[in-house]
């Protein structure tokens, strides 16, 4: 299944994706930078900035925990949190997920699907994952 992430809400899309992955489907999400996170821009930035900075707060000499800054990695991390990755079925399901910024050449002619339950229609405030990544200092 190939999903166009443009105009979808992060949590709702991630929950639908995780359920389909556990059912054994292979999922490809395109346009990850256009997935929306609902809420205030300042709140969203502060939340992700705090996660990224947690590495140096907890143990400056340690190399973890690592939190993603790129939009496709933020989406993959969100889906990973919804899967039982301590069990074999969760790890196998997670390997079936691919996420991309934009549309790669191999998927240019593919039939893109949307998830009606996850569309960003009636929410007033929101920020795109691409904007959060830019605020965190990532050029993609």
Mind explaining what this structure looks like?
By secondary structure, the chain is an alpha/beta fold. It has one domain (2-135): Ribosomal Protein L13p, Chain: A (Alpha-Beta Complex), CATH 3.90.1180. The protein has helices spanning 10-22, 41-58, 71-81, 88-94, 129-135; strands at 2-4, 27-30, 36-38, 97-99, 126-128. A three-stranded parallel sheet has the order 1-2-4, covered by helices on one side. The radius of gyration is 15 Å and the shape is globular.
Could you name the key traits of this structure?
single chain, 140 residues, alpha/beta, Ribosomal Protein L13p, Chain: A, three-stranded parallel sheet, two-stranded antiparallel sheet, 5 helices, 11% strand, globular
Q: Summary?
A:
The chain is an alpha/beta fold and about 140 residues long.
| Strand fraction | 5-15%
**CATH superfamily, called what?**
Ribosomal protein L13
The ordered H/E elements are EHEEHHHEEH
Gyration radius, in Å: 15 Å
- CATH third-level topology: Ribosomal Protein L13p, Chain: A
Q: Choose one word for the global shape.
A: globular
The tally of domains stands at 1
CATH architecture: Alpha-Beta Complex
Mean pLDDT: 89
* Biggest β-sheet description: 3 strands, parallel
Q: Which strand order does the major sheet show?
A: 1-2-4
The assigned structural class equals alpha/beta
Unreliable stretches = none
The helix fraction, in percent, is: 40-55%
From the N-terminal CA to the C-terminal CA, the straight-line distance is: 25 Å
Care to count the β-strands? 5
Q: In terms of quaternary structure, what is this?
A: single chain
């Amino acid at each position: 299944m190939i999903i166009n992430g443009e105009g979808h809400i992060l949590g709702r899309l991630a929950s639908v994706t995780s359920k389909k992955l556990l059912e054994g489907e292979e999922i490809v999400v395109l346009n990850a930078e256009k997935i929306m996170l609902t809420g205030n821009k300042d709140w969203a930035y502060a939340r992700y900035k705090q996660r990224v900075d947690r590495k140096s707060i907890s143990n400056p000499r340690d190399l973890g925990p690592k939190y993603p800054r790129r939009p496709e990695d933020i989406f993959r991390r969100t889906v990973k949190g919804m899967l039982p990755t301590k069990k074999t079925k969760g790890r196998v399901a997670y390997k079936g997920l691919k996420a991309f910024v934009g549309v790669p050449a191999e998927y240019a002619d593919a039939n893109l699907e949307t998830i009606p339950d996850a569309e960003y229609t009636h929410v007033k405030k929101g920020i795109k994952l691409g904007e959060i990544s830019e605020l965190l200092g990532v050029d993609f």
